[in-house]
Amino acid sequence: MTTRAVRRTTGTARQTDPTNPNDPTHPIDPTHATGATGATNPTRPAGAAGPNGTTSPASSATPIQRLLRAAAVIATVPYLALKAAWLAGSHIGIPDGSVLLESELFSAVANALTMAMDACVIVLALLLTRPWGRRVPGWLLLVLVFTATGLLTPIMTGFPGQLLVRAVGFGAGEDVKAAREPFLDDWVYFVVYPGFIIQGLALAGLFVPYARERWGRCRQGVPGTRLPSSTGVVAGAAAAVGAAVGAIHLYWAFGGTAWLDAEQVAQYSAESGVFSAVHGLCALAAGAGALLLARGGAPAVRGALALAWIGSSAALAWGLWLLLAGLGLQFGESEPAAPMIFLTYAGQAITGCLSAAVLAWSARSRLAA
User: Fold this and answer.
1) What is the pLDDT of residues 53-69, one digit of tens each?
2) Cα–Cα distance between 207 and 163 in angstroms, integer?
3) What does pTM read for this prediction?
4) Do the Cβ atoms of 273 and 254 come closer than 8 Å?
5) DSSP H helical segments within the chain, as ranges?
6) CB 366 within 8 A of CB 217
7) Is the dihedral of CA 198, 293, 359, 289 positive or negative?
8) Contact (Cβ atoms closer than 8 angstroms) between residue 341 and residue 252
């Protein structure tokens, strides 16, 4: 054996020690699961368990993943094209007298922000299917997917619900349409919302198997264990606020008129109530998911994770969005909304935030167990 070979085996030169977790090539170091070229670390094959039960997903996309990626990217085109046109000064799809034309600054900022948000769908589709996406920190990927889930879920459920209500004869009548303030032409929704639904389905098809492979241990639970009592307090607060917010939204969804002005009452229909019902159910799901996760243990953990993930993301994302949109429109010529409207949106966001905190603590405890 040559001297160089002896040094390799005895470690007299700088060696790589697989038993030393501080060594940069340690086989369970998740930050070195892939090399600079994106190749999988030969010391830990794709899909093998890493620290805290995590795994390294395979780096090559399957034909189904490539199809879903293409669907997600193509589905962003109608929305991005409309936003680009509006930012360029076009009013296509915006009728005269629309509140969107009352505050040009607010509309421009909102259009730029929402355009960037939809472009993130393209980034997400690439992160979940390309080799370089494996080097993105897990927390950042989860934040992006969490936000996308929250923004897309109410549209994916509410828009088909509205079409169903309209199909069975409970759509908005002519008097209701006449009472509504101009906002967008109807064709805009039929162009944009199907794209959102495709984006949501495609991202779900990409993320669910990715998460199962990388963080699958979160679904297992630890029998007989509970989260700290402080987490239970947070979960209880999420359930209480979520129940109140959910009750208010469902009350409005079925025609309740309290805290609404005469114009809002005149604009109500079963079709418009669908989205209020969706927001209410998401707030209730966020609270219920938080309570189930705070109990700990293995039973029905998948359902609890799904409730908390979907409910908290939708409540937080749409609570903040509706709150900011309502405040932004106050700079225009619209009548100010009732304080209860803003309190409901704020409660919606608070519910999502509390439930998301319980979700994060629960996932962390399961991975560390």
Assistant:
1) 444 444 578 999 999 99
2) 28
3) 0.81
4) yes
5) 3-10, 63-75, 77-87, 104-127, 138-167, 174-179, 186-214, 229-253, 262-266, 270-295, 301-329, 339-368
6) yes
7) positive
8) no
